[in-house]
User: Fold this.
Amino acid sequence: MFAEERQQRIAERARTEGRVDVAALAADLEVTTETIRRDLTALERQGVVKKVHGGAIPLERMGFEPTVAARDTVQTAAKERIAAAALAEVPEEGAILLDAGTTTARIAKALPARELTVVTNDVLIASLLAAKPLLTVLIVGGKVRGRTMAAVDDWALRALAETCVDVAFMGANGISVERGLTTPDTGEAAVKRAMISAARKTVVVTDHTKAGNDCLARFGTLDQVDVLVTDTGLDDGLTAGFEAADLKVVRA
Assistant:
């Protein structure tokens, strides 16, 4: 197993379980504890985990977020499948909203050439879409958070209050039956709430490691979501819980 693949598995396990143990990882991955410690050091430098005695915990559980570059290296195949499946929710014409995030960025890359208006608060997504033919791209202004490249605060909220789209494609750092949709940053949570309010239909796109996870700030409840597009790694029990909450679940 390559180091990058091993580190991705460690990051996924940390997010799923809330903590990883050096000795347990070494046994499960059949490497030395020194190798695991080097992996954890690399993940800490990327802003994915925080090393603690005997192991590490994901920064998202502490109210922090990994950078866009770090998040873009995790669950890459799953995110590609999620984005492809989410295209089925894109209308033939009209307006959509793309939340900031690495999965929504993949939707942006895969958008077909058709006459759509796309609203986004993500600087990277806006620049990517600007070169696509037929699309009208509107970027929501505000203070740009360097960690996520998302525009937040009052300017963004005022723009979204005057916006109405057919479908909002939303990311989430956590989604659970008990707490709904959550994210580590209160400023981003406020913008995400405004995005949901601006849409006739809400589609959440997130990989299975976020399911059952709760972060600091809640921005939506499950009854505000029409469709959850995730990957086949989602646990059957969690799937049943989401479906019992009248949420359509698509596992790509």
In short: The chain has ten helices and 15 strands.
